[in-house]
Amino acid sequence: MPLSDKDVAVRQDYANGLTLVQEQVEWYSKRASELKTRAQNSDLIVISAGAAVAAIPTMVTGPFGGLLVSILGVLIAVTQGAQRIFRSSEVWPGYREAAEALRREYRMFSYGGGVYESDFDAACATYLKRTEEIMANEQKRYFHDLKSDA
């Protein structure tokens, strides 16, 4: 049975009062966006420099062409190394997934859907448990990936 507007408002007020969860949603979202942009920019640099390496020998003759190819090779190596160290392209999808999972729990809790079709106290306990599990799973995944890279 759908919740009344008053019950929805009470649940939203409760969930909004849990600042840690809201801060985590914001942090995961912001960090995912930053890392995705960083990964895409790095990929664009590598692709552009790689294309230039292929084109320069046909367009520039003499030692200057070789110097440009060498500089672009260093740029590619440094960019790929930074991608490997910072793992932006590997980490951002997990952050986005965690943010979206936390948002989904908020919506389900607010409107009393799924596992939240219970009294307020039971729904609150379930909400806290499930949001904590989402954050803990993201941390586990992050540290597991970090260990496997070592």
Overall description:
By secondary structure, the chain is mainly α. The protein has one domain. It is built from 5 helices and no strands. Helix 2 runs antiparallel to helix 4. It is elongated and about 80 Å long.
State Rg. 24 Å
Give the overall average pLDDT. Answer: 91
Structural domain count: 1
Tell the overall outline.
Answer: elongated
Report the β-strand fraction as a percent range: under 5%
The helix/strand class is mainly alpha
Q: Main beta sheet, described? A: none
Strand/helix succession: HHHHH
Tally of strands:
0
Helix content range:
over 70%
Number of helices: 5
N-to-C terminal Cα separation, in Å? 51 Å
What low-confidence regions span 5 or more consecutive residues with pLDDT below 50? none
Strand and helix map with partners:
Blueprint: H1 5-17, H2 19-59, H3 63-86, H4 88-111, H5 120-149
Short description:
The chain has 150 residues and is mainly alpha-helical. The protein is built from 5 helices and no strands. The chain is 88% helix and 0% strand.
Defining traits:
150 residues; mainly alpha; 0% strand; elongated
